[in-house]
Amino acid sequence: MDLAGFKQSVSAKVPPSGLSQAAQALWWDAKGDWDKAHACAQAQDDKSGCWVHAYLHRKEGDPSNAGYWYRRAGKQPATVSLTQEWSAIAEALLGD
């Protein structure tokens, strides 16, 4: 699935099948369900899950917690807009 298809899928009631927990987290975030997004990010305990987890805490306004998750993901804290970061993470996850 490409980024455009992923964004379009957000109009559905459930995420497309075959997505990782991290990608599902971004999907739920795009639907406005931060809690469900957070649960999905926590369920994938690897660098991808940590990256999404960092993004979610950055979006929440908790830079300290976000910093912890960026470090676990092996990423520098994002300095771009949340929208840009969401797209960059989605493209990376969908390209895996």
Mean of pLDDT:
96
Shape: globular
What does the main sheet amount to?
none
How many domain regions?
A: 1
Number of strands: 0
Secondary-structure element series: HHHHHH
Radius of gyration: 12 Å
State the helical fraction: 55-70%
Poorly predicted runs: none
Q: Give the N-to-C terminal Cα separation.
A: 10 Å
Percent strand = under 5%
Write out key terms for the chains shown.
96 residues, mainly alpha
Written overview of the protein:
The chain is mainly α. The chain has one domain. It is 69% helix and 0% strand. The model has no long low-confidence stretch (mean pLDDT 96).
How would you summarize the topology of this molecule?
Elements: H1 3-9, H2 21-30, H3 34-43, H4 47-60, H5 63-73, H6 82-95
Structure, briefly:
The protein has 6 helices and no strands. With 96 residues, the chain is mainly alpha-helical. The protein has one domain (20-95).
